[in-house]
Specification:
By secondary structure, the protein is an all-alpha fold. Helix content is about 75%, strand content about 0%. The longest helix has 22 residues. The radius of gyration is 20 Å and the shape is elongated.
Length: about 80
C-alpha cells in the first residue's frame, strides 16, 4: 500500500493548523508579527499560489481548445 504525497501533505497541514489553533486559543503568539503584516503575507501567498496554478494548468477557453482537450482525454 502506497500513501499518496497529497495525503501526507494534507495531513501535515491539518496537524499544523490544529496546533496553531490550540496555541492561539491558549494565548500564545505563534508568529511574532502584527495583524497587518500577517494579512499582507497571506494575501501575497494567495496571489502567488493562484498565479502559479493558473499558469501551470491547461486553461482552454476557445471551443477548439476544449474539443482538443476532450480528444486528448479520449486517447
Amino acid at each position: 500500500m502506497k500513501i499518496e504525497v497529497g495525503t501526507i501533505i494534507r495531513t501535515v497541514l491539518l496537524v499544523v493548523a490544529l496546533v496553531n489553533q490550540v496555541l492561539t486559543l491558549t494565548g500564545h503568539s505563534v508568529l511574532p508579527v502584527s495583524d497587518e503584516q500577517l494579512t499582507e503575507l497571506i494575501s501575497t501567498i494567495f496571489t502567488v499560489v493562484t498565479a502559479l496554478i493558473a499558469w501551470w494548468k491547461n486553461n482552454s477557453f476557445t471551443s477548439k481548445a476544449i474539443k482538443a482537450d476532450e480528444y486528448k482525454k479520449s486517447l
